[in-house]
Write a structure and sequence with these properties.
It comes from Microbacterium nanhaiense. Helix content is about 30%, strand content about 20%. The chain is of the alpha/beta class and about 210 residues long.
Length: about 210
């Protein structure tokens, strides 16, 4: 797994004393995608949008956190590798409050990073994503740490397989302080209502 490109990250402001929120885009997108949400979110945080380290197969443009073609479609090892790359990028930033906001692939990687290093994250936001299968080193810790997690998804989302949704529905309540909402008629996307709910969730974490 290549390292994240530090020069590609977009920052809302220089890193200071504010808590940090890292934005992780979905498959075939880039760091500019979720960065556009920053003006709709609380100013109590510094926002950094990172670029996933892989390139999807031609003709798909953009970047990806792990392959989703062929037999590796939902391979937890790929999700873990993406999460490890994120943790590597975070390491030089030192000890500070950190939250993750991910969409789709970025959400899966965000949850997996929490599972690898529960002590590193104050909260995680899962937008149209899922929890990877298998076990991770921090799973037992998460049962008592109760990291706050917001999970939003559309009722008409046909991108994330039903079995992944079912697994996440079973897994998250036992491994987080879960706040969840299903948006009627929404596909694999983020709605204005969901952004409002996200903003309220972040305000409570500030």
């Amino acid at each position: 797994m290549p390292s994240l490109d530090a020069d590609a990250a977009l920052w809302s402001e220089p890193l200071g004393d504010k808590p940090l929120v890292v934005l992780l885009h979905g498959y075939g997108s880039d760091e500019r995608d979720l960065f556009s949400l920053r003006d709709h979110l609380p100013s109590a945080f510094t926002y950094a949008a990172v670029r996933a380290p892989l390139a999807p197969p031609f003709p798909m443009s953009g970047h990806s956190w792990y392959p989703i073609d062929g037999l590796q479609s939902r391979d937890p090892a790929g999700v873990t590798a993406g999460a490890e790359a994120l943790l590597e990028w975070l390491a030089p930033l030192g000890e500070r409050r950190v939250g993750l906001v991910g969409f789709s692939q970025g959400a899966a990687v965000s949850l997996q990073a929490m599972r690898l290093a529960p002590e590193r994250f104050d909260f995680v936001v899962n937008l149209s994503g899922y929890a990877a299968g298998g076990s991770a080193p921090g799973d037992e810790t998460l049962k008592t740490a109760r990291v706050p997690v917001f999970w939003g998804r559309g009722s008409a989302d046909e991108v994330i397989p039903p079995e992944a949704i079912d697994h996440t529905t079973q897994w998250l309540p036992d491994h987080s302080e879960l706040v969840g909402r299903v948006y009627p008629g929404l596909g694999h996307a983020v709605s204005a209502q969901e952004i409002e709910d996200l903003s309220r969730f972040l305000e409570k974490q500030a």
